[in-house]
Amino acid sequence: MLKVKKLTKTFQSGDGRVTALNEVSFNIDEGRFVSVIGKSGSGKTTLLSILGTLEKPTSGTITVDNRELTGLTAKEMVAYRCKQIGFVFQGYNLVPNLTALENVMLPMEFAGVPAKQRIMRAKELLDQVGLVGDKIQRKPGRLSGGEQQRIAIARALANQPKFILADEPTGNLDSETGKKIFDLLHDLSKSQNTTVIVVTHDLSIAGKTDQTFKLEDGKLL
Ligand SMILES: Nc1ncnc2c1ncn2[C@@H]1O[C@H](COP(=O)(O)OP(=O)(O)O)[C@@H](O)[C@H]1O
Ligand SMILES: [Mg+2]
Q: Cβ < 6 Å from ligand 1: which residues?
């Protein structure tokens, strides 16, 4: 269970203070598939960044299975992020000089998984997301956007995270490919009991999730 309580984030910028998140509170049960919607600038990316421990909140708490994330040391935070969080971004964020297979193996290397196991699991994951044959030996530049996002999803799953945090994962894809990627995330969340939180502009997508959160000016409606 993920419990978020009165999460607030303010940024100090040139023209004053911006409240990106304003006392946001919610709970999400394990294995849920949740969408976050809201206009540009409403705080969606900030929320995902804080849930993923990439940024610290100004105030408020995040509790995962009764463990307070804001209370972790820097070292514990890195370990938590590596093992428990898988990120998927709009721009895929793959390493261009590594093959699809190597990209998926990378997080397992950081987590200390032995080499043989890394290869086996990366192949399994790529198979699960539908990337097969010689494509797994190609670098991202020689694959389509949809294929690159499949690799990113396989990579996000590498360390069997508790959460997948996806920021507009279909934003760069045509609507048909986007739908396939979305269905893939949905199937994976159900088959692996992974909690998926996906930011999207696409309301037809948001309508298919277990829960939808709407942000407006940093407030949860
Ligand atoms: N690092 C930052 N410094 C200053 N302002 C920021 C920063 N990150 C986000 N913001 C501001 O916080 C608000 C929410 O941004 P963001 O979370 O990126 O929204 P969204 O993802 O919904 O488009 C915006 O007003 C944005 O300009
Ligand atoms: Mg954003």
A: 11, 13, 18, 20, 38, 40-46
Range of 85's domain?
31-58+65-220
Q: Mind listing the pLDDT tens digit for each residue in 157-199?
A: 999 999 999 999 999 999 899 988 999 999 888 888 899 999 9
pTM of the predicted structure, to 2 decimals = 0.94
Neighbours of ion ligand 2 (CB under 5 A): 44-45
What gap in Å lies between CA 173 and CA 90, rounded to an integer? 9
CATH number of 77's domain: 3.40.50.300
Q: Is residue 196 in a domain?
A: yes
Q: What is the pLDDT of residues 9-39, one digit of tens each?
A: 999 988 899 999 999 999 999 999 999 999 9
